[in-house]
Design goal:
Layout: E1 3-4, H1 10-17, H2 21-27, E2 29-33, H3 35-44, E3 49-55, H4 56-62, E4 71-74, H5 76-82, E5 91-96, E6 110-114, H6 119-132, E7 135-139, H7 147-153, H8 156-159, E8 162-164, H9 168-173, E9 177-187, E10 198-202, H10 211-214, E11 219-222, H11 233-245
Helix pairs in contact: 6-7, 6-11
């Protein structure tokens, strides 16, 4: 098997470009890193896999686990130039980005993220949505396929239905009730669960839900809490998701 040792290799150059949103959009691809992340991601969407890239050391340790995948092996030096993480395991995979269509056929409940900018928050919310069976709409948020979000979300970026820049009006017209998480809302532990499809709106870390979207929400809910003004956006989203899915 050929071992890539040049940073000028076409695949190596392409992976390095995928660290930049412009090229992720242009190529319609992103990459995931880490043994468990890649293993779970390949199992979830083998149809979207382009290539598994392993360092020489990782190939000796993990190569058999990806025997049925297209594999490229690179030197430790080359892998060190393409990795986006410290203490990398030497396991990376390139995927085509999922093409999810938002239309009247969507039946699962949703979480709408309004200007969530922290990659860790977006990734954590994606994992939680995956766990509770929600789809996700990201409006004016950080890119869900950036390396930091993918690392935080793990395989959820491929397991969860992700929609980008879908208007509140479009969501409502597809039969969803919009419910905002807001400090001035009804107590979450007393709210009656919606009868039909619903979409939980989680706002920007500093400013909350925008006035434009808030005006389109039929209800607002707040989480009972003591001794603190507000919760982290990802924590709040998880609590509301769980409460309304019970």
């Amino acid at each position: 098997m050929e071992i890539i040792s040049s940073l000028n290799n076409a695949l190596v150059k392409r992976i390095n470009k995928l660290k930049i949103k412009k090229y992720r959009d242009e190529y319609g691809e992103f990459f995931a890193e880490g043994y468990k992340n890649v293993l779970d991601s390949v199992a979830a969407r083998r149809d979207l896999l382009k290539s598994v890239v392993l360092s020489e050391r990782a190939y000796g340790e993990f190569g058999q686990d990806f025997a049925d995948c297209p594999i490229t092996v690179v030197t430790e030096q080359v892998y060190g130039k393409i990795t986006d993480t410290e203490g990398a395991q030497g396991v990376l995979a390139v995927f085509s980005g999922p093409k999810n269509v938002f239309d009247g056929s969507n039946t699962q409940n949703l979480v709408l993220l309004d200007r969530i900018r922290d990659p860790g928050n977006v990734g954590t919310i994606l994992r939680t949505c995956c766990a509770f069976g929600y789809g996700v709409v990201l409006n004016n948020c950080c890119d869900p396929y950036s390396p930091k979000v993918v690392r935080s979300a793990m395989s959820a970026v491929l397991k969860c239905d992700i929609f980008v820049d879908i208007s509140a009006d479009n969501i409502i017209s597809n039969g969803y009730e919009l419910i905002a998480a807001d400090m001035n809302g009804e107590m979450l532990d007393t709210i009656v669960k919606p009868d039909g499809k619903f979409c939980i709106v989680v706002g920007n870390e500093a400013d909350g839900v925008s006035g434009e979207i808030m005006n389109k929400c039929s209800r607002t809910v707040r989480i009972p809490q003591k001794n603190i003004e507000s919760l982290n956006a990802a924590i709040a989203a998880a609590i509301v998701m769980y409460a309304l899915s019970k």
